[in-house]
Design goal:
With 251 residues, this protein is mainly α. The protein has 8 helices and 5 strands; from the N terminus they run ααααααβββαββα. The protein has a 3-stranded antiparallel sheet.
Length: 251
């Protein structure tokens, strides 16, 4: 028997309200009781529909789903039919609607040339002409990143994005204003606090020197006591010059 009929007949026979369909289904599976039905014939519980209903549904399966369901319910007085159930049946049976769900080339949107209807609640949240977003950061704005470096927005076009302003490291921008562009292969190293962007607090060093100053080198220049930093820098510079000379000699 179909599980719903199976459960209904069991309740009528034994009056066991504590037994649900899922309990009987589980029992049937555990004991290996076969239902003896052809799976192809009962695919999607077709017994819910008569042959006449199936024939009508198949013949009108290209209709829009809501109109299809409404016409079916009216013709066969099937109040239990819903668009979701009929949609599932259509998918199981492989009935094609002839629609792709895509806009065809050359199709015109229904809203083309129409203005959005005025809604006072929507109008409150709309951008007004000349309004500046609350996230706008103009020239002169500063921020500190998670590494402690200060960034500043300058009134110059961004060469990468074309934006009217450009966000740069403040210490480098000030240093270049006083000393010119940082040479290729060189970087600026902080002598003390990174928040101090004065050019005097930044030293020009070769980029290859940095590994001799980081934490993995055992020196950890950034976190070393201020009085030891000149010594650490001098040793690192000496080692770097020796290394560069040795490489040049080998070449």
């Amino acid at each position: 028997m179909v599980i719903s009929d199976y459960h209904r007949a069991f309740q009528a026979e034994f009056d066991r309200p504590d037994i649900l369909q899922i309990h009987l289904h589980g029992l049937r599976k555990r004991l290996g009781w076969k239902v003896g039905r052809d799976p192809a014939r009962y695919k999607g519980r077709r017994l819910k529909y008569t042959e006449a209903e199936i024939a009508w549904l198949r013949g009108n399966s290209t209709m829009e789903i809501n109109a299809w369901c409404a016409a079916f319910r009216e013709k066969f007085d099937r109040g239990d039919a819903t668009p979701a159930k009929l949609h599932s049946l259509r998918k199981r049976e492989g009935w094609k609607t002839g629609r792709t769900g895509q806009f065809e080339k050359g199709s015109v949107p229904a809203t083309k040339g129409k203005k959005m209807p005025f809604n006072p609640n929507s109008a409150v949240t709309q951008f007004k002409k000349g309004q500046v977003p609350h996230t706008y950061r103009g020239a002169g704005h500063e921020r500190v990143d998670r590494h402690g470096y200060v960034w500043i927005v300058i009134d110059q076009p961004n060469p990468w994005t074309g934006a009217a302003t450009w966000s740069v490291h403040k210490h480098r921008w000030l240093w270049e204003q006083a000393n010119g562009a940082v040479p290729e292969g060189m970087v600026l190293k902080c002598r003390g606090d990174k928040a101090n962007t004065d050019p005097s607090n930044w030293e020009l060093v070769p980029q290859g020197l940095l590994p001799r100053l980081n934490g993995k080198s055992g020196r950890d220049y950034d976190h070393a006591p201020r009085e030891l930093k000149p010594t650490i820098m001098a040793i690192a510079r000496l080692e770097h010059r020796v290394r560069e000379k040795a490489r040049g000699g080998a070449a």
